[in-house]
Amino acid sequence: VVAGDTLGSLMWMGYNNAWRNNIAYITAVAATGWGATGTDAPTYMGFWTTPDGSATAQERVRIDNQGNVGIGTTTPFGLLSVEMTSIVDDSTPAFVVADQGTSTPALLVNYAGNVGIGTAAPGSILHIKKDQVAATNLIIENDGASGASTGILFNNVNGDRGFISQDIATARLDIGTITPTASISIIGSNVGIGTT
Length: 196
Fold this sequence. Notes:
The protein has strands at 6-15, 19-30, 43-49, 58-63, 69-71, 80-82, 93-97, 107-110, 115-117, 126-128, 149-155, 161-167, 173-177, 182-187, 190-193. It has 196 residues and is an all-beta fold.
């Protein structure tokens, strides 16, 4: 046995006016690194199905010898890697998490890499939507020691940096830029410009 050899497979076929062989199957294959002794025998598994309008199966899912799962890729680079091998249209998502029977996903990543929470059509890198009467909040929480801060940092290619942050100890809200240094600090109803 050498790397690339099929060790076993489970295949399905069908017949109407002719036999359709290997229209869906699962294979176990010797992976790169297969050694001369039985102590080194890495394998991977492939799951194949045939699309509409074709009689040729395509590999859809790969489980590599590290246990990483690839959907749409034969070289997963994490525990779960999802890649789009082709874009049917702009509305085709790469990844979706949704409750059964609902048309609006809880989480969606579209073909462009935009992330939608509560929306099937994210219009930017991150798009959060909630249809409800009550307030919709984005919560950023830090359970660290007193003196730590929680906030949002903005950065661009020129190194200009801005921030919105809150000091845990004083509950002071700071809004400003790091380059150049400038800030607005809010504590209760008091507002300081250039001072905390």
